[in-house]
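Thread title: Can someone regenerate the structure for this chain?

I was given the following input by a collaborator and told the matching structure tokens would be attached. They weren't. Posting the sequence so someone can regenerate them.
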Amino acid sequence: MKRPKLKKASKRVSCSQRYKIQKKVREHHRKLKKEAGKKGVGKRGKKDLGVPNIAPFKEEVLREAETRKLKVEEEKEKRKQEKKDERAKRKKERDAPRSESENPKAKKARMDTDEKEVSKKSAIKTYTKQFLCSEINTVIDQSDVILEVLDARDPLGYRCPQLEEAVLTRPGNKKLLLVLTKIDLVPQENVEKWIQCLEKEFPVVAFKASTQLVDKIVQEKKRRFPDSLLDKSRASLSFGNACLLALLESYQATSKPEGTLKVGVVGFPNVGKSSLVNTMKGLRACNAGVKRGITKSMQDVFIQKNLKLYDSPGIVASPSNPPASMALRSLQVEEGEEKALEAVRTLLKQCDKVQVMLQYNIPDYRNSLEFITLLAKKRGYLMKGGVANMEQSATTFLDDWTGAKLSYHCRVEGLSLPPYLSETVVTENKKGLNLLKLQTGNEATLQGVKYPNKASSISLISKGPTAGLLSTKNVVQKPVPIPREEVKEMEELNRESGPVEDTKDVQKTDNKNKSNKVQFQSVPVGTSPNNDTYDFNTDFK
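Best answer:
Regenerated them for you:
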């Protein structure tokens, strides 16, 4: 029983309890001794008395005993050496080169793993900007229909004029469709307005991908459970896949009734290309996640016998874009070209302060550094000594903005046709597509999705279409000028931390102080007209 005033309970036991324990211990030891006596473990071996001093020829007997001992040890060493030689022989026979028919399966598997490791190391080197651009170009060349995936939170910002122009100018009468993903993170009015605005240029498909898809093995296991136990959360639901599939099937029946229709999925990093392919397939065919730049190469997935989708890596954003669009649609942070803290600073400047405070439930902050520290303390991202982990909180903030978590929207503006588009090109692009079926499908998807409230969504000003790179030739990175607001923030931080004096400045101040000291000059007596003048050098030398 724990006493009221003591911190820990007392370890004292009653006498009867203690005596019982001692008795049981004695019985246990007695039992162990009895068993050891039966087995003969406890009996010690008889001590060798040796040769008595009275015995004649004692020295000769001892020498014989020593020689016998040495012989036994030599025999033991020989046996050990023989065993070692046998092991070495077996190893040589195993490692000796054999023909493919004699080679064991284990060795083949070992060689395969070595080859895979080498290929992985070489693949890391090949994942350059030039390689990613070539992969996107191959997807455009091989596909008949191209789906440009746009984030519904900023559809204009996720459009790439260079990609659209390349698709329309390539031979083969390629069709271009716009797919609005993540529509569940934008208010309904905003989504409807964007669809009406973008439909003037290209056919638009409203889409909401499922982020809880699993592999074939896990899916088979889940089939055993009843429907009540299955995951029916907001993330597992998908909308618009039936509409898109019906549209592609109808186009395949008219354009390629015998062959397979090849569809390329393109867009900026983390816009939802791989999730779209997985939702269309109904399985986790492509690797997808919150981290940007997971897809590094082209991947083909068969949806049906006559329908094939190409998953592609993200479009490489041009360095001439504004910093806000680079923070959301480039891989500068992942490649180490830009720090996550700088990207957070640029994003916070684009949105309203009050809306960010309400969204993250954080008090008023002066600058981006204070916001990141408050977010780290709120989420529990602390290091040793209770210090806020700034890097982790900055990366999670970026993941919220690029991933399918944070709700923000951009105002719809009246768009004019770009120079690479004309009315004839728009009409030709829409030929062969069942637009009535598409319209009815979009209406069905918009009715089924659950949208956020406009008050809980952050409003953002779109920076316009983002320029992308389809070839890395003649790319010059222009130095981005630092805005005045950032300079002011840096000055405030320096004031808070305290002024740091340079060594040169200190030396200058010392010299100034020396020059400011009073120095008396000696004046010869008698030169001055007045005889009452006092010479300081007489008393102060």
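The CA atoms of residues 274 and 286 lie 6 Å apart.
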